Amino acid sequence: MRKAIKSTPKSPKPKQLQKTTPKKKHKSKKRERKKIYRNINITGFLKKYILPCLPYVAMGWFANKTSEAYNLSQDNRTAFRILETLPNLSTTISNPLPSFVLTDLIIGLIGGILFYAIVWVRKKNAKKWRHDVEYGSARWSA
Question: What are phi and psi of 104, to 5 degrees?
Fold first, then answer.
């Protein structure tokens, strides 16, 4: 029968031979933004679908209120009605609920969709900027 050989514990490696993890240079802005969202504890659905739509809903609400102010003006001539909209706008915005008149709702919807289309076209025509890298003549230097 063979005798069991006692295993000796391995000696730790010297510090020179141990692998060291490289230090991180800096965090990107995108990671910092994600970290901020994580601290707020917003659910994934809310971040993905609701928050990106808020500016378009706000513009639709403003178009609805502008249409309501236009309809409250009493003059028959269009130019004077447009001029009367500005004083009426302060009274209509004081009530946060949208106007539920059909024409006001349609104009609010068109205003939100129009704002979305403008932003979408601007995003499509945007230049390809390189984040955290100098942009300009230094890009083409030797």
Answer: -65, -40
Q: What is the pLDDT along the chain (142 residues), one digit of tens a residue?
A: 566 666 666 665 555 555 555 565 555 566 665 555 555 556 777 888 888 999 999 999 999 999 999 999 998 999 999 999 999 999 999 999 999 999 999 999 999 999 999 999 998 887 766 666 666 655 565 5
Phi, psi of 54 (to 5 degrees): -60, -40
CA distance 56 to 98: 14
CA distance linking residue 108 with residue 99, whole number of Å: 9
Domain ranges of the chain: 52-126
Contacts of 93 (CB under 8 A, 6+ apart): 65
Claim: this prediction has a pTM higher than 0.85: no
User: Structure tokens of 14?
Assistant: 């010297």
**Residue length, the chain?**
142
